[in-house]
Protein backbone atom coordinates (compact mmCIF):
# COMPACT_ATOMS: atom_id res chain seq x y z
CA UNK A 1 0.00 0.00 0.00
CA UNK A 2 1.50 3.34 -0.89
CA UNK A 3 1.32 6.10 1.66
CA UNK A 4 0.94 9.57 0.27
CA UNK A 5 2.22 11.86 2.95
CA UNK A 6 2.55 15.49 3.80
CA UNK A 7 4.94 16.42 6.60
CA UNK A 8 5.63 19.76 8.24
CA UNK A 9 7.62 21.52 10.97
CA UNK A 10 5.76 24.73 11.83
CA UNK A 11 6.59 27.55 14.21
CA UNK A 12 3.37 28.32 16.11
CA UNK A 13 4.73 31.13 18.30
CA UNK A 14 8.17 32.20 19.53
CA UNK A 15 8.63 29.13 21.77
CA UNK A 16 6.38 26.54 20.13
CA UNK A 17 6.93 24.22 17.16
CA UNK A 18 4.38 21.80 15.74
CA UNK A 19 5.49 18.55 14.10
CA UNK A 20 2.76 17.18 11.94
CA UNK A 21 2.12 14.69 9.18
CA UNK A 22 -0.92 13.58 7.32
CA UNK A 23 -1.85 10.64 5.16
CA UNK A 24 -3.52 11.86 2.03
CA UNK A 25 -5.49 8.84 0.93
CA UNK A 26 -8.85 7.96 2.44
CA UNK A 27 -7.74 4.46 3.42
CA UNK A 28 -4.89 5.65 5.60
CA UNK A 29 -6.69 8.70 6.98
CA UNK A 30 -8.57 6.51 9.45
CA UNK A 31 -5.34 5.28 11.10
CA UNK A 32 -4.62 8.67 12.57
CA UNK A 33 -1.59 10.90 12.52
CA UNK A 34 -0.80 12.28 15.99
CA UNK A 35 0.62 15.77 16.50
CA UNK A 36 3.81 16.50 18.48
CA UNK A 37 4.59 19.86 20.04
CA UNK A 38 8.06 21.13 20.92
CA UNK A 39 8.54 23.97 23.41
CA UNK A 40 11.92 25.50 24.09
CA UNK A 41 13.82 28.42 25.58
CA UNK A 42 17.55 29.08 25.78
CA UNK A 43 18.24 26.24 28.17
CA UNK A 44 15.28 23.92 28.22
CA UNK A 45 13.39 21.83 25.73
CA UNK A 46 10.24 19.76 26.09
CA UNK A 47 8.17 17.62 23.78
CA UNK A 48 4.47 17.10 24.37
CA UNK A 49 3.59 13.71 22.82
CA UNK A 50 6.73 12.31 21.16
CA UNK A 51 4.30 10.14 19.15
CA UNK A 52 5.50 7.90 16.31
CA UNK A 53 8.95 6.66 15.29
CA UNK A 54 7.74 6.52 11.72
CA UNK A 55 7.02 10.24 11.35
CA UNK A 56 7.15 12.45 14.46
CA UNK A 57 10.60 11.30 15.62
CA UNK A 58 12.04 11.66 12.11
CA UNK A 59 10.66 15.19 11.95
CA UNK A 60 12.06 16.00 15.39
CA UNK A 61 15.55 14.84 14.38
CA UNK A 62 15.31 16.98 11.26
CA UNK A 63 14.57 19.96 13.48
CA UNK A 64 17.35 19.26 16.04
CA UNK A 65 20.03 16.61 15.88
CA UNK A 66 21.47 14.70 18.82
CA UNK A 67 24.50 17.00 19.20
CA UNK A 68 22.40 20.16 19.21
CA UNK A 69 20.18 18.66 21.91
CA UNK A 70 23.13 17.65 24.07
CA UNK A 71 24.98 20.95 23.69
CA UNK A 72 22.13 23.40 23.98
CA UNK A 73 19.66 22.14 26.56
CA UNK A 74 20.38 21.32 30.19
CA UNK A 75 16.75 20.37 30.85
CA UNK A 76 15.01 17.92 28.52
CA UNK A 77 11.58 16.54 29.18
CA UNK A 78 8.52 14.89 27.76
CA UNK A 79 4.87 15.15 28.72
CA UNK A 80 2.27 12.68 27.51
CA UNK A 81 -1.32 13.78 26.93
CA UNK A 82 -2.35 10.14 27.35
CA UNK A 83 -1.14 6.56 27.23
CA UNK A 84 -2.02 5.44 23.69
CA UNK A 85 0.64 4.00 21.38
CA UNK A 86 0.37 6.66 18.71
CA UNK A 87 1.19 9.41 21.24
CA UNK A 88 3.92 7.72 23.30
CA UNK A 89 5.98 5.25 21.24
CA UNK A 90 8.99 7.42 20.35
CA UNK A 91 9.27 8.35 24.06
CA UNK A 92 11.60 5.39 24.58
CA UNK A 93 14.03 6.82 22.00
CA UNK A 94 13.97 10.25 23.66
CA UNK A 95 14.61 8.65 27.03
CA UNK A 96 17.35 6.23 25.91
CA UNK A 97 19.24 8.26 23.33
CA UNK A 98 18.57 11.88 24.20
CA UNK A 99 18.19 11.70 27.97
CA UNK A 100 14.69 13.15 28.27
CA UNK A 101 12.62 12.65 31.45
CA UNK A 102 9.06 11.42 30.91
CA UNK A 103 5.96 12.74 32.69
CA UNK A 104 2.43 11.36 32.46
CA UNK A 105 -0.70 11.42 34.53
CA UNK A 106 -0.56 9.23 37.64
CA UNK A 107 -3.47 7.14 36.31
CA UNK A 108 -1.60 6.19 33.15
CA UNK A 109 1.96 5.74 34.42
CA UNK A 110 1.64 1.94 34.59
CA UNK A 111 0.21 1.61 31.09
CA UNK A 112 3.01 3.74 29.61
CA UNK A 113 5.59 1.57 31.37
CA UNK A 114 3.99 -1.77 30.51
CA UNK A 115 2.37 -2.54 27.16
CA UNK A 116 0.33 -5.44 28.59
CA UNK A 117 -1.49 -3.01 30.88
CA UNK A 118 -1.98 -0.68 27.93
CA UNK A 119 -3.58 -3.54 25.98
CA UNK A 120 -5.82 -4.32 28.93
CA UNK A 121 -6.97 -0.70 29.08
CA UNK A 122 -7.66 -0.67 25.38
CA UNK A 123 -9.21 -4.05 24.73
CA UNK A 124 -9.74 -6.05 27.89
CA UNK A 125 -12.11 -6.22 30.83
CA UNK A 126 -15.32 -5.19 29.16
CA UNK A 127 -18.06 -5.42 31.74
CA UNK A 128 -20.78 -5.56 29.08
CA UNK A 129 -20.92 -7.03 25.58
CA UNK A 130 -17.80 -9.10 26.28
CA UNK A 131 -18.20 -11.45 23.33
CA UNK A 132 -18.64 -8.62 20.85
CA UNK A 133 -15.76 -6.49 22.01
CA UNK A 134 -13.00 -8.67 23.40
CA UNK A 135 -9.93 -9.06 21.30
CA UNK A 136 -8.55 -12.61 20.95
CA UNK A 137 -4.91 -13.59 21.44
CA UNK A 138 -4.41 -13.99 17.71
CA UNK A 139 -5.89 -10.67 16.80
CA UNK A 140 -3.76 -9.06 19.55
CA UNK A 141 -0.71 -10.14 17.53
CA UNK A 142 -2.24 -8.55 14.45
CA UNK A 143 -2.90 -5.34 16.41
CA UNK A 144 0.75 -5.27 17.58
CA UNK A 145 2.00 -5.77 14.02
CA UNK A 146 -0.30 -3.06 12.70
CA UNK A 147 0.77 -0.61 15.42
CA UNK A 148 4.44 -1.28 14.66
CA UNK A 149 3.82 -0.81 10.93
CA UNK A 150 1.95 2.46 11.44
CA UNK A 151 3.87 4.10 14.27
CA UNK A 152 6.87 1.95 15.24
CA UNK A 153 7.77 -0.49 18.02
CA UNK A 154 6.85 -0.32 21.69
CA UNK A 155 9.77 -0.42 24.14
CA UNK A 156 9.15 0.01 27.81
CA UNK A 157 9.91 3.45 29.23
CA UNK A 158 10.13 4.90 32.72
CA UNK A 159 7.79 7.64 33.87
CA UNK A 160 9.82 9.64 36.36
CA UNK A 161 7.26 12.30 37.18
CA UNK A 162 3.47 12.37 37.35
CA UNK A 163 1.32 15.38 36.53
CA UNK A 164 -1.98 16.56 37.95
CA UNK A 165 -4.42 19.46 37.66
CA UNK A 166 -2.76 22.82 38.34
CA UNK A 167 0.85 21.60 38.02
CA UNK A 168 3.28 23.65 35.98
CA UNK A 169 5.00 21.38 33.46
CA UNK A 170 7.28 24.06 31.94
CA UNK A 171 8.32 27.41 33.48
CA UNK A 172 9.30 29.75 30.69
CA UNK A 173 6.79 30.07 29.06
CA UNK A 174 4.55 28.63 31.72
CA UNK A 175 2.64 25.51 30.67
CA UNK A 176 -0.13 24.48 33.01
CA UNK A 177 -1.58 21.00 33.35
CA UNK A 178 -5.33 20.57 33.02
CA UNK A 179 -6.98 17.23 33.66
CA UNK A 180 -9.38 16.50 30.79
CA UNK A 181 -10.63 12.91 31.17
CA UNK A 182 -12.73 11.67 28.28
CA UNK A 183 -10.84 9.67 25.66
CA UNK A 184 -8.95 7.99 28.53
CA UNK A 185 -9.44 8.48 32.27
CA UNK A 186 -6.05 10.13 32.78
CA UNK A 187 -6.06 12.37 29.67
CA UNK A 188 -4.28 15.68 30.15
CA UNK A 189 -4.38 18.98 28.25
CA UNK A 190 -1.69 21.66 28.44
CA UNK A 191 -2.49 25.36 28.57
CA UNK A 192 -0.12 28.25 27.92
CA UNK A 193 -1.66 31.46 29.36
CA UNK A 194 0.88 33.86 27.80
CA UNK A 195 0.44 32.51 24.26
CA UNK A 196 -3.21 31.45 24.74
CA UNK A 197 -2.44 27.99 23.38
CA UNK A 198 -4.28 24.80 24.34
CA UNK A 199 -2.70 21.45 23.52
CA UNK A 200 -5.71 19.20 23.96
CA UNK A 201 -4.53 15.66 23.20
CA UNK A 202 -7.40 13.46 22.03
CA UNK A 203 -10.04 15.46 23.88
CA UNK A 204 -10.15 17.00 20.41
CA UNK A 205 -9.48 14.60 17.53
CA UNK A 206 -10.13 16.67 14.44
CA UNK A 207 -9.09 13.97 11.99
CA UNK A 208 -11.58 11.16 12.41
CA UNK A 209 -13.81 12.15 15.28
CA UNK A 210 -17.45 13.08 15.57
CA UNK A 211 -18.25 14.45 19.00
CA UNK A 212 -15.83 13.09 21.58
CA UNK A 213 -13.24 10.51 20.53
CA UNK A 214 -14.30 7.58 22.73
CA UNK A 215 -12.50 4.43 21.68
CA UNK A 216 -11.93 2.21 24.69
CA UNK A 217 -13.77 0.94 27.79
CA UNK A 218 -12.29 3.70 29.93
CA UNK A 219 -13.56 6.45 27.63
CA UNK A 220 -16.29 8.43 29.34
CA UNK A 221 -19.06 10.51 27.76
CA UNK A 222 -19.91 12.28 31.00
CA UNK A 223 -16.31 13.11 31.93
CA UNK A 224 -15.70 14.23 28.34
CA UNK A 225 -18.60 16.65 28.37
CA UNK A 226 -17.34 18.10 31.67
CA UNK A 227 -13.83 18.44 30.20
CA UNK A 228 -15.16 20.27 27.13
CA UNK A 229 -17.12 22.67 29.36
CA UNK A 230 -13.94 23.24 31.38
CA UNK A 231 -11.66 24.09 28.42
CA UNK A 232 -14.41 26.20 26.84
CA UNK A 233 -13.95 28.67 29.70
CA UNK A 234 -10.26 29.24 28.95
CA UNK A 235 -8.95 32.13 26.88
CA UNK A 236 -7.63 30.24 23.81
CA UNK A 237 -6.41 31.70 20.52
CA UNK A 238 -4.65 28.57 19.23
CA UNK A 239 -5.95 25.03 19.64
CA UNK A 240 -3.53 22.18 18.88
CA UNK A 241 -5.62 19.00 18.74
CA UNK A 242 -4.34 15.43 19.26
CA UNK A 243 -4.95 14.76 15.56
CA UNK A 244 -5.75 17.13 12.71
CA UNK A 245 -5.05 20.74 11.84
CA UNK A 246 -4.55 23.53 14.38
CA UNK A 247 -7.48 25.91 14.85
CA UNK A 248 -7.03 29.64 15.36
CA UNK A 249 -9.32 32.36 16.72
CA UNK A 250 -11.09 32.56 20.06
CA UNK A 251 -14.64 32.50 18.68
CA UNK A 252 -13.97 29.71 16.17
CA UNK A 253 -12.46 27.56 18.92
CA UNK A 254 -15.34 28.21 21.29
CA UNK A 255 -17.83 27.26 18.56
CA UNK A 256 -15.87 24.08 17.88
CA UNK A 257 -16.11 23.04 21.55
CA UNK A 258 -19.83 23.77 21.47
CA UNK A 259 -20.26 21.74 18.29
CA UNK A 260 -18.50 18.75 19.88
CA UNK A 261 -20.70 19.02 22.99
CA UNK A 262 -23.81 19.15 20.81
CA UNK A 263 -22.69 16.19 18.60
CA UNK A 264 -21.91 14.08 21.66
CA UNK A 265 -25.26 14.83 23.27
CA UNK A 266 -27.16 14.04 20.10
CA UNK A 267 -25.37 10.69 19.60
CA UNK A 268 -26.27 9.83 23.19
CA UNK A 269 -29.93 10.75 22.63
CA UNK A 270 -30.11 8.87 19.33
CA UNK A 271 -28.85 5.67 20.98
CA UNK A 272 -31.45 6.02 23.75
CA UNK A 273 -34.14 6.55 21.09
CA UNK A 274 -33.06 3.42 19.17
CA UNK A 275 -32.91 1.32 22.34
CA UNK A 276 -36.34 2.48 23.39
CA UNK A 277 -37.88 1.62 20.01
CA UNK A 278 -36.93 -2.10 20.00
CA UNK A 279 -34.16 -4.46 21.16
CA UNK A 280 -31.22 -4.16 18.83
CA UNK A 281 -27.64 -5.33 18.27
CA UNK A 282 -24.40 -3.40 18.53
CA UNK A 283 -24.24 -3.41 14.73
CA UNK A 284 -27.83 -2.14 14.59
CA UNK A 285 -26.86 0.78 16.78
CA UNK A 286 -23.73 1.62 14.77
CA UNK A 287 -25.68 1.66 11.50
CA UNK A 288 -28.65 3.38 13.16
CA UNK A 289 -26.51 6.27 14.44
CA UNK A 290 -24.15 6.43 11.46
CA UNK A 291 -25.99 5.16 8.34
CA UNK A 292 -22.93 5.89 6.16
CA UNK A 293 -20.93 3.26 8.07
CA UNK A 294 -22.64 0.26 6.42
CA UNK A 295 -20.01 -0.24 3.71
CA UNK A 296 -16.94 1.24 5.38
CA UNK A 297 -15.18 -1.46 7.34
CA UNK A 298 -12.51 0.72 9.01
CA UNK A 299 -15.04 3.34 10.09
CA UNK A 300 -17.41 0.62 11.24
CA UNK A 301 -14.85 -0.68 13.73
CA UNK A 302 -13.94 2.77 15.05
CA UNK A 303 -17.60 3.57 15.53
CA UNK A 304 -18.35 0.23 17.15
CA UNK A 305 -15.95 1.23 19.92
CA UNK A 306 -17.47 4.69 20.05
CA UNK A 307 -21.01 3.32 20.46
CA UNK A 308 -19.71 0.89 23.04
CA UNK A 309 -18.47 3.77 25.20
CA UNK A 310 -21.91 5.37 25.06
CA UNK A 311 -23.51 2.03 26.03
CA UNK A 312 -21.18 1.84 29.03
CA UNK A 313 -22.42 5.26 30.13
CA UNK A 314 -26.10 4.39 29.54
CA UNK A 315 -25.60 1.15 31.45
CA UNK A 316 -24.16 3.08 34.41
CA UNK A 317 -26.99 5.60 34.41
CA UNK A 318 -30.08 3.50 33.74
CA UNK A 319 -29.03 -0.12 33.16
CA UNK A 320 -29.17 -2.19 29.98
CA UNK A 321 -30.64 -5.62 29.26
CA UNK A 322 -28.17 -7.72 27.30
CA UNK A 323 -29.35 -11.13 26.06
CA UNK A 324 -27.86 -13.80 23.81
CA UNK A 325 -30.45 -14.83 21.23
CA UNK A 326 -29.54 -17.21 18.37
CA UNK A 327 -25.91 -16.20 18.50
CA UNK A 328 -26.84 -12.52 18.49
CA UNK A 329 -26.40 -10.14 21.37
CA UNK A 330 -29.64 -8.23 21.82
CA UNK A 331 -29.53 -4.96 23.70
CA UNK A 332 -32.52 -3.15 25.13
CA UNK A 333 -33.29 -0.61 27.78
ZN1 LIG B 1 -5.70 8.09 21.93
UniProtKB/TrEMBL annotation:
Fetch the Pfam families from UniProt: Lactamase_B
| Domain annotation Metallo-beta-lactamase: ranges | 33-243
What InterPro entries does the record point to?
Metallo-B-lactamas (IPR001279), NDM-1-like (IPR050855), RibonucZ/Hydroxyglut_hydro (IPR036866)
Q: What is this protein called?
A: MBL fold metallo-hydrolase
Source species: Candidatus Heimdallarchaeum aukensis
